[in-house]
Design brief:
Strand order of the largest sheet: 1-2
Largest sheet: 2 strands, antiparallel
Structural class: mainly alpha
Number of strands: 2
Radius of gyration: 23 Å
Number of domains: 1
CATH architecture: Up-down Bundle
Length: 369
């Protein structure tokens, strides 16, 4: 299944349950619709309040945190490195989810029908799919670039022009992978009774439900399993190299900075893996056994797993501020809680006395991290 989140999950639930007037009688649809209303805990006011608070918190922290990451990298020249540009790319993708997807997902979840028209029905699920693909591909690019420079001893830095080209290709490939979410989609009005009708936005595959399951499992492999495997292999080798070897021409302080930044990037991958695991596991269960769709409180469970997955869209800026001295100094400088980032001086130590004390070291430099 696509990673467009709960919007598409609800659509899949509707379509697999048979909300299609071409193959279901009106009485059947109406009776099943009444059953959902009676058995769906997301209709309870207390549950809706909790969901509103959860999604609002994610949106608020996601917009503030990711916007701050983008701003400080643009503002401070010492942070304009290749790795940081990739981190900005992650922040842009997460910001896209926070602003263009989650508010609509929340309304759709609470209201139970699509009220945003046909155009957004095709655009929003695809946009979230693109954003998730961008995140996973970018994490892979960062891991492979660091593997190239640390494990393979490649001294040549990736140029900023090459970095821009990689980012463009990342978005193009992500759009291609997410395009079925816009192509195989249908916006319809379903009559539940003579007096009641709802608008639905659901996946519409050419022949059978099996096509949707094939795409779903393929997306799981491309969005989660394969990227996670690549990241794990790359960072295990990087960590092993940093732990047991001294890089040629590098001092102890340089090695420590490499380890700290590798730890930060590895933590990003772990957070992504853990936050998305319940969502993917639950959706895999749905693909294997469609009777899961009829489980009590299916919608509530799916929404809860989606909230956990979406937490990954705002956690990264907190990781940067916690694990990276330069990001932390830049954040505090912007918030006027600390002396200006560009004028903050490091206390010289060892060989660092020969360096310019007026400029902070950028821990996310593409090769000399």
């Amino acid at each position: 299944m696509d990673a467009a989140g709960h919007v598409n999950a609800t659509e899949r639930e509707d379509s697999q349950r048979g909300l299609d007037p071409s193959n279901r009688s009106t009485d059947s649809v109406m009776n099943e619709g009444i059953f959902w209303k009676l058995d769906d805990s997301t209709n309870l006011v207390a549950v809706q309040v909790i969901l509103i608070l959860a999604y609002s918190t994610i949106i608020l922290f996601g917009v503030i945190g990711n916007s701050l990451v983008i701003y400080v990298v643009i503002k401070f020249k010492t942070l304009r490195t290749v790795t940081n540009f990739f981190i900005v790319n992650l922040a842009v993708a997460d910001l896209l989810v926070n602003t263009l997807c989650l508010p609509f997902t929340l309304v759709y979840t609470l209201d139970g029908q699509w009220k945003f028209g046909q155009v957004l029905c095709f655009m929003l699920p695809c946009a979230q799919g693109v954003a998730v693909h961008v995140s996973t591909i970018t994490m892979n690019v960062i891991a492979l670039d660091r593997h190239r420079t640390i494990v393979n001893h490649t001294e040549t830095k990736m140029s900023k022009d090459m970095c821009a080209a990689v980012i463009v290709v990342t978005w193009a490939v992500s759009a291609l992978l997410a395009s079925p979410l816009a192509i195989f989609r249908e916006y319809e009005t379903i009559d539940l009774s003579p007096e009641e009708s709802i608008q639905v936005c659901m996946e519409k595959w050419p022949s059978s439900r099996m096509n949707g399951s094939i795409y779903s499992i393929s997306a799981l492999l491309v969005q989660y399993v394969l990227p996670l495997a690549i990241n794990c292999v790359a960072y295990i080798r990087i960590w092993s190299k940093l732990k047991s070897h001294m890089m040629p021409g590098g001092g102890i302080d340089r090695q420590q900075r490499k380890k700290k930044t590798t730890k930060m990037l590895l933590t990003m991958v772990v957070v992504f893996a853990v936050s998305w695991l319940p969502f993917h596991a639950f959706q895999l269960a749905v693909d294997i056994d469609s009777t899961v769709l009829y489980m009590k409180d299916f919608k509530l469970l799916f929404t809860a797993f989606h909230i956990v997955a979406m937490c990954s869209t705002f956690v990264n800026p907190f990781l940067y501020g916690w694990l990276n001295n330069n990001y932390r100094a830049a954040f505090l400088s912007v918030c006027k809680c600390y002396q200006p980032f560009t004028s903050r001086k490091r206390r010289p130590r060892g060989r660092e006395t020969h360096r310019n004390a007026d400029t902070l070291y950028t821990e996310c430099e593409s090769t000399n991290v």
